Amino acid sequence: MYYIGIDGGGTKTTFTLINEQGLKIGQYKTGTTHYAQIGFDGLKSVIKEGIEEILENSDISRNLIKGVFLGLPGYGEVKSVKHEIEEVVKSILGDIKYEIGNDVEVGLAGSLAGEDGINIVSGTGSIALGKDSTGSFARCGGWGDYIGDEGSAHWIGKKTLEIFSKEADNRLEKGDLYYNIREKLNLEDDFDIIDYVLNKIQKDRGKIAEFSSICHESALQGDKNAIKIFEEAAYELSLLVKMIVNELNFEKEILVSYSGGVFNSKEMILKPLRKELSDFNVKLIEPILGPDEGACLLAYKLDGNMITESFIENLSKSIEEVTA
């Protein structure tokens, strides 16, 4: 028996196939599954392609798939959108047992290996989800880039562009962030960045988010304005955690973990985040499993299976590693 976990996101999507022991049989990575970026036809194309590729590459028959969990960005936030996504998935998976959730759900399942606690997702967008010992859930954030997504890569990217404009105007002292952007974009004039954002990348959400990596590079070089952006991002992400702590009933120290590209900046975001959460009974821990493995865990549970320690251990391994 086999199971497929789908970890969708604003930038990339990972399809992972596991066997009943939890060992990875195959994996396929592709672009975004955010309907707002690719439309519902694009969503259908990506999911269909991912399912077909992972089965073909692993030489596994479709009728051997006993559970699929799809963690998709934007799911569950708008009723009409929720229905459209469900119709798309139904048309592809048909009679295969499946469940759809928001991408934050696979982040929570993976980062805490199914245990109670809180997971922060800060990728292209931002959102947090918590679960307490009673099985109650609470989420915070996930309002999208036009309304919220504070602390996300897109938010950091926009802040980076804002700082560039202020430094270009001498409203702020020029630093590494300013010079790094000029160099990487090969700008002849500061105002050329307007043409780059509006016309070349057409305000693409994912492309704007890529400016967060320039911000990180500049912060590592000691740029004070870049460091401040990460401190502000940490503050915004801490608010998501604090709301969930107050909303749910946690009886002991609360495990808080994370997923998403912003956390690739390591201590640049984690150090100020720990500081912001220092007055709360929380413990910030590294993710136990990735969100793709969390999706597999949830797919496995769909078939009525119990999660064991050996299964958790196997999720981080491939069948080739075990049989080598």
Automatic annotation (TrEMBL):
Entry-linked SUPFAM superfamilies: Actin-like ATPase domain (SSF53067)
PANTHER family: BADF TYPE ATPASE DOMAIN-CONTAINING PROTEIN (PTHR12862), N-ACETYL-D-GLUCOSAMINE KINASE (PTHR12862:SF0)
Annotated protein name in UniProt: ATPase BadF/BadG/BcrA/BcrD type domain-containing protein
Domain ATPase BadF/BadG/BcrA/BcrD type: 4-299
InterPro entries given in the database record: ATPase_BadF (IPR002731), ATPase_NBD (IPR043129), NAGK-like (IPR039758)
Origin organism lineage: Bacteria, Bacillati, Bacillota, Clostridia, Peptostreptococcales
